[in-house]
Amino acid sequence: MSETINFMIDETLVAQHDYYGYLNTILTKKSQFYQPYRPSNAVDVSPCELIAFYLPQFHPVPLNEAAWGRGFTEWTQITKAQPFFYGHYQPHLPADLGFYDLRLLETLRAQAALAKNYGVSGFCFYYYWFSGQRLMDGPLEMLHQNKDIDIKYCLMWANESWSKRWIDEQEVIIAQRHDSKIDCEFIHSIIPYLKDNRYLRYEGKPVISIYRQNLMTDRSAIDYWRQACRDAGLGEILIMSVPGYGTVDDAGLDGVLQFPPSGDIQEFRVKGAENASFFNKKFEGYLKNPAICRDRFMQQNSRGKPVFRGAFTMFDSSPRFGNQASIYVNTSPDFYGNWLVETIRQSRRDAADRQAPMTPVFINAWNEWAEGAHLEPCRWYGHAFLEATRKALALA
Predict the structure, then answer these.
(1) Which domain holds residue 62?
(2) Binning pLDDT at 50, 70 and 90, where does residue 267 land?
(3) CA 78 → CA 31, 82, 94, 168, 369, distances in Å?
(4) Contact of 384 with 33, CB cutoff 8 Å
(5) Are 153 and 199 in contact (CB under 8 A)?
(6) What is the DSSP letter of 94?
(7) Percentage of residues in the chain with pLDDT exceeding 70?
(8) Do the domain assignments include residue 303?
C-alpha cells in the first residue's frame, strides 16, 4: 500500500498559505463534509452494539489543579491547539454541547441522547483507580445513580501511573502501584457497576477491560476477580486487554479489545510529508497513514478468542504533545465510516468462524478532544462523524 499522503484534505481549505488566513478558515467556515443534526427515524435492529470510549476529564479535580493550575480540565489543552501545516485541522472546537462541565447531570443526559440518536449503544468509561483511590469518577457515578438514562456502559481500568506525560513522563501526579493485594482489591470497586442492568455484557458476562495488563505483576489477581464476581452473584465475567501490552494467553485473559491507534508501530513520517506546507518549522513528530493503521487492526486475530474490534474517528495528539505529536493525516468522516463498515462486517465473520454471538464494536472515541478523536459534533464537521456512524450501521 502506498504511504504517500495528499495534504489537500478538504476542498474548502482554499489556497491560503499564510497561517492566520488558514486559521481563520478553520475557525469561521465549515468542512465540505459538514452535517447538521438530524433526528433518527430508524426502527431497524442494529447489526451490532457500538461502544464509544469516554473520557471523564472534563471537569476540575484537585489533583489536576495542583499539577496544572486552578480550573484545569481537558478543555484547557484543546483551546491551545493550533495548525502545524496546511491541511492540518486544529483547533477542534465543540459545537452543540459546547465546552461542557461533566459535573452537570444535564450534560450526561444530552450526551446519552445524542449517542443513541445516531446508533451508539453505550460508553466505555476510562476508570481511574489507584490503590483504592478513585479519580474523575463523578460522571460514571451519576450515570450509575440515574437509572433512567437509557445507555449501556462498561469500564476500562486505566491502570498506569498518571503523569505529566506530554511534558515529562517522569513527573508523576499519582502513581499506580501493582502487587497481588492491590490488584485483587480493584474488582470490589467496580462490582456495584457490574450489577447494573445497563452494564455491557457479552454472552451474558459483564465486560471488563484493562489498558495495560502487562503492568499487573500477579496473574492470580485475575483468578481472584473471577471468584469474587461469582461470590457476588454475577457469574462469569469477560476480561479483555488492549493489544500492544503483553499477550492475552500469558495474562489469563479472555480476549482482545482493540483501541486504535494504540499499538500502531508507524514511527515514521509518511512519504510526501516533505511537500507539506508547514507553519511550524519545529515540528518533530510523526505524520501517519490511517489506512496502514486500519489494515493492521483489521487483520488482527486472537487464536480463537474474541476480538472486540475498533476504529477511530480521527487522531491527532498535538494539543497534548505539541511538536512531538502523532498526527494521522487525511482522516475524514468518509474514511472513518468505511472503516467502521468493514469492521462490523469483519466482526460478523469472526462470530461465524467462532460459532459465537457477534461482539460489540468499539469506537475511539466519544470525546477524546485532545487527541482529535471524537464523535461529538465540532464546528468544522458538525455531526458528520455521527452521521457516518448511522450510515455504517445501515450499510453493514
Answers:
(1) 49-395
(2) low
(3) 19, 9, 10, 19, 7
(4) yes
(5) yes
(6) B
(7) 88
(8) yes
Is 381 a member of any domain?
Answer: yes
DSSP structure class, residue 221: H
User: Does residue 368 fall inside a structural domain?
Assistant: yes
- Per-residue pLDDT tens over the stretch 343-375: 999 999 999 999 999 999 999 999 999 999 999
Considering its fold, how many domains does the chain have in total?
Answer: 1
The answer to whether 329 touches 287, Cβ cutoff 8 Å, is yes
- Quick one: which of 207, 191, 216 has its CA closest to 240? 207
Q: How far apart are CA 215 and CA 213, in angstroms?
A: 5
CA neighbor of 157 nearest in space, from 183, 129, 182: 129
- Whether residue 37 lies inside any domain: the answer is no
Q: How would you classify the pairing of strands 255-257 and 307-308? A: parallel
Q: Which residue has the higher pLDDT, 381 or 163?
A: 381
DSSP per position, 283-341: --SEEE-HHHHHHHHHT---TTS-EE-EEES--B-HHHHGGG-EEETT--HHHHHHHHH
Residue 314 in contact with residue 336, Cβ under 8 Å? yes
The three three-digit cell numbers of residue 171, written as one number? 513527573
At residue 301, the pLDDT reads 83
Preceding amide of 392 cis, omega within 30:
no
Helix (H, G, I), strand (E, B) or coil at 142: helix
Cell numbers given for 363: 469506537
Residue with C-alpha cell 516533505?
A: 274
For residues 155 and 209, is the Cβ–Cβ distance under 8 A?
Answer: yes
DSSP H or E segment with residue 174: strand 168-174
d(Cα 213, Cα 104) in Å, to the nearest integer? 33
Give the CATH number for residue 219: 3.20.20.80
